[in-house]
Amino acid sequence: MGKKQAKQVIDKKAIIDAFQEIVRAKGIDRESLQKILEDVFSLMVRKKYGPETKYEIVLNFDKGDLEIYIIKDVVDIVENPVSQISIDEAKLYDDTLELGDEYVEVINYDNLNEIFGRRIVAVAMQTLFQKLREFEKDQIYTEYKPREGEIIVGEVYQVRRNDILVLHNKIEMRLPREEQIPNEPYRFKKNQTIRAIIKEVRKTSGGIPDIILSRASDEFLARLFELEIPEVYDGIIQIKSIARDPGQRSKVAVYSLDPRVDPVGACVGMKGVRINSIVKELNDENIDLIEYSDDPKVFIARALSPAIVKDVQIDPIVRHATVIVADDQVPYAIGRNGQNVRLAMKLTGYQITLVKESGEDIELGEFKEELGLSVYNQLLQMGIQTAREFLASDPDKILRIHGMSRDTLLELREIMLKEFDEEEDPKVVEKIDEVWRQIQEETSRL
């Protein structure tokens, strides 16, 4: 049996042009758009004629084909008007049709509202735009997910309280506060260019891609080295590890695979031009370049620069190092607020205990948990950086620290004295009691 088609003239140019514009504006490939449109038109047909309807949808942008065919069997007696048409009615459209043929009705796009009704057309259009939005979301995620760890150059779109919005190829990305270098929100203005690394690409509950940028991560610093130092990009110089306090100070361990290339000198560049460009990008963050060594003792000693180290004793099983330094080198080894030794530990992967050459001592950071972060930071601001310095400090100064009390001070002293296998001096306890009574009297008068 043959398949006959009822002939109607349809002006499709405007519709095809509209679809072509969608392809250009949304960046959607033709095959994906064709699949979306077929789904939308299928929805319209099923809503209008029912799920049992036989139909065909032809979409071919290259040839300009754009048709919806409703297919009905030509029968003598109609039992199902959705899928059948009587021979008498069929011959009104095409007198060549016979019983058993298929009658094909072509939907005229000029009369979509009349044929399907405005409600169905409105639902179809809503579905179309929803699918287009979903496609855009998936496309953005698919494009940027593999680019995690890559540096992008974007444009500041908006500076907000907790994040900076950045546009890259018209795609909105987010630089959260915790991924910013401190004080940078005041540095960047709207429409200004910004460099950052794509730290993470994830989907929100609504399916919208959330592209997280970072300028505070170690990876961002590593990528900057690759951009500014050809030897790093080519793999001649390797970055072994990075320890960073964003916006303040970083330590970078570098190693040369070519014995003729000085890794530190190559990274610094002629008159410091290479490293200075990185420092400028990072808001004047100080960068210590450390030549990596397979010998942990050598590596730890270098990591503690600018301090000069006398000796390093290591326990590789627990990754602990005891470092002996001259008395005048202790402040350099510890650094401001303990920053230097903290970065050295992160860089080397070893827990470091600093000991004065004149006698055993322990860095105050070893007791951070017992002290509490607030008390620990206050002690560092007072210039107290080791356990011996804490034990030798005037009780009046210590007891006036916010969060300190008589019992707490005696407990902390007991913990530290045990580390040195020493016992508390009764005279010191008397002095602490006396000072504590004076402080309590002063407080009551206020």
Question: What does the model show?
Answer:
The chain is of the alpha/beta class. The chain has 5 domains: 140 residues, 2-Layer Sandwich (N Utilization Substance Protein A, Chain:P, domain 4); 69 residues, Beta Barrel (OB fold (Dihydrolipoamide Acetyltransferase, E2P)), CATH 2.40.50.140; 72 residues, 2-Layer Sandwich (GMP Synthetase, Chain A, domain 3); 65 residues, 2-Layer Sandwich (GMP Synthetase, Chain A, domain 3); 73 residues, no CATH class. It contains 18 helices and 16 strands. The strands form 4 sheets. Strands 1, 2, 3, 4 and 5 form a 5-stranded mixed sheet that branches. It has a 5-stranded antiparallel sheet with strand order 8-7-6-9-10. Helix 6 runs antiparallel to helix 9 and helix 10 packs antiparallel against helix 12. About 2% of the residues have low confidence.
N- to C-terminal distance:
108 Å
State the low-pLDDT regions, or none: 4-11
The overall average pLDDT, rounded, is 84
Question: What's the number of structural domains?
Answer: 5
Q: Can I get a quick summary?
A:
The chain is an alpha/beta fold and 446 residues long. Helices cover 41% and strands 24% of the residues.
Notable traits:
single chain, N Utilization Substance Protein A, Chain:P, domain 4, OB fold (Dihydrolipoamide Acetyltransferase, E2P), 5 domains
Question: Helices, strands, pairings?
Answer:
Layout: E1 3-5, H1 13-26, H2 30-49, E2 54-60, E3 65-75, E4 84-86, H3 87-93, E5 102-106, H4 112-116, H5 118-144, E6 151-159, E7 163-168, E8 171-176, E9 193-203, E10 209-214, H6 218-228, H7 230-233, E11 237-245, E12 249-256, H8 263-268, H9 273-281, E13 286-291, H10 296-303, E14 309-315, E15 320-325, H11 330-334, H12 339-348, E16 351-356, H13 368-371, H14 373-381, H15 387-392, H16 395-399, H17 406-419, H18 426-445
Parallel strand pairs: 1-5, 3-4, 12-13, 15-16
Antiparallel strand pairs: 2-3, 3-5, 6-7, 6-9, 7-8, 9-10, 11-12, 14-15
Helix pairs in contact: 2-5, 6-9, 10-12
